[in-house]
Amino acid sequence: MNMAATIKETFQPAEIAQLVRLISPTPSTGEMSPEEFERLMKELEAQSNRRGYSEKSIEAARLVLVIGASIAEAAAGTNLTRQSVNQLMQRIRRRMESLPQGWVKVTDWFPAEVAQQLEQISDSLKAAHASGKPLDTQSFTISFKD
C-alpha cells in the first residue's frame, strides 16, 4: 500500500490538513509559526461559547497570520469575501489581545482537591494580572488532605 493511502485510512481529513499546515514551509513574512497558530486556534476555540471556526476561516486566518498574506489574498485563496476575512481577522486579533502574553493553557486531569486548589491559584493569578500587580511576588502551595 502506498503512503498516501495509508495516511487516508489512518487519519481524518482535518488531521491531515493540520499536519500539512504544520509541516509546510513558513515564509518570514508571517506573524507566527504554524505551531503558534495551532496553539492560538485551540485556545480561541476553548474559550469560545460560539460554534467553532469553519475550515475556510481557519485557512484564511492561517494565510494571514502564518504566511503573511493580505486580506485580499486570503479571501481569494479561500473563496471568502474580503469583508468576511477582514471581520474574521478583527475578531481574532481582538481575542488575541485579550489573552495574557506569555501564558499557556494547561488542560489535564487531577485529584479533585488538587484541581480545586489549582482553580483558586488560577483565579488569584488572573486577578493579579488584571489589576497590574507583579506575578513574581505570588507564592502558592498545593497540599493533599488526609
TrEMBL record:
Residues 35-117 form the TrfB transcriptional repressor protein domain. The keyword Transcription applies. Keywords: Transcription, Transcription regulation. InterPro entries: Fimbrial_Adhesin_Reg, TrfB. This is TrfB transcriptional repressor protein domain-containing protein. It comes from Pseudomonas helleri.
